Amino acid sequence: MVKTIKGIAASDGIATAEAYLLVQPDLSFTKKSVSDADAEVSRLKDAIKTSDDELTKIRDIAKESLGDEEAQVFDAHKMILADPEFTGAVEQEVKDQSVNAEQALHDVSENFISIFEGMTDNPYMQERAADVRDVTKRVMAHLLDVNLPNPALIDHDVVVVAHDLTPSDTAQLNSYVKGFITDIGGRTAHSAIMARSLELPAVVGTDTITKDVKEGDTVIVDGLNGAAIVNPSDEDVKHYNELAKNFADEKAEWEKLKNEASVTADGKHFDIAANIGTPDDLQGVIDNGAEGIGLYRTEFLYMQSESLPTEEDQFKAYKKVLEGMKGKPVVVRTMDIGGDKHLPYLPLPEEMNPFLGYRAIRISLDRQEIFRTQLRALLRASAFGNLRIMFPMIGTLQEFRDAKKVFTEEKAKLVADGVKVSDDIQLGMMMEVPAAAVLADQFAKEVDFFSIGTNDLIQYTMAADRGNEHVSYLYQPYNPSILRLIKHVIESAHKEGKWAGMCGEAAGDNTMLPLLLSMGLDEYSMSATSVLRVRSLMKKLSTKDLATLADRAVNESITNEDNKKLVEEYLNK
Ligand SMILES: C=C(OP(=O)(O)O)C(=O)O
Ligand SMILES: [Mg+2]
Fold it and tell me: pLDDT under 50 in the chain at which residues?
């Protein structure tokens, strides 16, 4: 039976392939006493052996597709299985307590995990707790004879179907993955942002996809319109092949603008830059002809590392990006951990509201040793290109001043040590906290630039979680309240002779573009794969015609829909 499931269009494109369910199985079990302990130990040994064989396979594939460093985690898992202190303890538990292997494994691993997690002065050992948890899950799945998904082992074209994908799940998807569909999530959640940079069609927030699809069903992901079609008819396949072809043709047209500047029909130039998460994204930036990098999310450097990245590791990454951009501006944002981005080796307190909690600049100013290391790496790299630095989640002027002070101190130390650092690094801030946006006129006197982070600015202004599909109707980019804030930020910057950019997802939105051009936004930073589409639309728009559009949007319109209509009418004129 053909089923069409609606969701949120999270990444453009269309893909058709077999469904791969990345769903965590039920690993619950009941405690049982056993009379034949030897038979139980032998069942345990079989499960350990199967797990170990599987890990060898995964490690080898990961090494080939992701590199040595990413593969190391699986070696760590194999070491736990080979460690008699761990497996021997489980065997002993089966014998001593006459319990089933599942119960023994659970008890011993919980014991190890709590010991490791308790080593608060040894982050290396704390990380091992996560490894024990992972390995235990694998052995438990084999004991219970249930399927544990192994995305690293995917060896044919699939569409991944999952309840949710974390940024680190998304980073592990290999090239056989042609798209993904999830139950939860929103367009600006980080997995959706990563899908766009990987050019993977994606639909999120379907609510029920993991129930609607079975392993092996054929699914079409329509990332353009936000739909998933399960077991499509021949007619559906034909229709979507046509849509996919039109999309490919359109992309080929945009491709022609790769080496052109971003100008409007009346010859006004604006910068279209790209957002990146790692130096590996650089090629996409160059291939899509971006005029700079408007946001380098450095937290991914921390997330892909096994422990806090050293100054040297960071220096190398920043230098590579700056050199790769050959003098074009690169805006690096200091670490924005917290919210939906976690570091396994930096345990943060459980919070009721992580997006309103201990995150970003709040952590950096509190844990200054981490912040200073990052700033030193950046300062050293500044000699190799056109570096600009910005701080995330600034809510008060005091936070910006404090961050700037730390920067100035580190710079002075390096200069005193004779290290070469650039003398004109612009220091700016993300405009993503409404309190700061309201006071943009005051901030503009002290910063070199603003970069408007609409992903967060919208969620905080509308009080609607950016990743929660149940409130996605309130996540309204064109709501006059949001547009007023954006307009005020841009005008405040200009009054002080500063520039204003935008690096939230709205910067790459076709409906937003006429409004932003009308407000005079200077820089537009987006997923690299959106650059040419936006450049193409910009070419068709004239700032003269647009002059009054923003005023109407913030003064006459009342709703998000009013403004959508206003822009549609303008574009269809
Ligand atoms: C660009 C932004 O930052 P992030 O998506 O990383 O929170 C934003 O909030 O708009
Ligand atoms: Mg943000």
Answer: none
